[in-house]
Amino acid sequence: MVKNSKIRTAMKHCANWDSGDCLGCMMNSSNKVLIFRILSKFANKPCQVDKRCDYFNNIVVPGVSNGI
User: Fold this and answer.
1) What is the mean pLDDT of residues 52-64?
2) CA separation for the pair 47, 55 (Å, rounded)
3) How confident is the model at residue 68 (pLDDT cuts 50, 70, 90)?
4) Which pTM value belongs to this model?
5) What is the pLDDT of residues 4-41, one digit of tens each?
6) Distance between CA 55 and CA 36 in Å, rounded?
7) Secondary-structure breakdown of the chain: helix, strand, coil percentages, each rounded to the nearest 5
8) Cα within 13 Å of Cα(62), Cβ side
9) Closest residue by Cα to residue 60 from 34, 19, 25
10) How far apart are the first and last CA of the chain?
11) Higher pLDDT pick, 52 / 9
């Protein structure tokens, strides 16, 4: 059983979750344009929500908080 609640939340709700690894897809917007990038820092590496993950904090957490 997974004890860390952030990891558990990532397992259930993060689009980047892939059997414990991160796909590394990050997004942001600039001038009303949505920009997607694959960050090699995260891609195909173990999930880092317990350290720091902007995607998790800015996309997953607000979505879960809003009942999605």
Assistant:
1) 90
2) 11
3) low
4) 0.80
5) 789 999 999 999 999 999 999 998 888 999 999 999 99
6) 11
7) 30, 30, 40
8) 5
9) 25
10) 23
11) 9
The structure tokens 């892939």 sit at: 18
List the chain domain ranges: 5-65
Cβ atoms of residues 54 and 37 within 8 Å = no
For the record, the structure tokens of 11 come out as 């397992």
The tokens for 19 are: 């059997």
Please give the DSSP secondary-structure letter assigned to residue 58.
I
